[in-house]
Specification:
Elements (H helix, E strand, L loop, with lengths): L6 H21 L6 E2 L2 E9 L6 E11 L2 E5 L10 H8 L2 E6 L2 E9 L2 H14 L2 H8 L6 E6 L1
Antiparallel strand pairs: 1-2, 2-3, 2-5, 3-4, 4-7, 5-6, 6-7
Amino acid sequence: MAVRSGGPGKAVGRTMMRMIVWLYRRTGGRVGGSMRGAPVLLITSTGRRSGQPWTTPVIYQADGDGWVVIASNAGSTRHPAWWLNLRASPEATIEIGRDTYPVTAHKVDDDERARLWQKMVAVYPGYDGYTKKTSRQIPVVRLDRR
């Protein structure tokens, strides 16, 4: 019998993620629309290997006419799959409450990164702790309306 990589923990995580996304959509973000007091959006990207849509809840902040998210993966040494998907195919959709927006994602440059990093840490201080857990530079990603 073949065993999928990642073991049962990965399957449980995916099931939990699907439940959060379902609740977010069902309630217009009243359930799942915040994490530790920070606002959450749903981002749907195209899987770089599967070609299938994947939806992930992510903490965000509005910035001008776009939105900012952090590809922290909780300080893991690996980038989150949603960011790898966006690097391969930057067009995505986001949901904020019941509103849906087509967006294009890009990693911000160093000057913009410093400003936006502080903006994100203000709503979720855990990001600073994540930098101590990993040697990679955690990407700051801007989502601009298409």
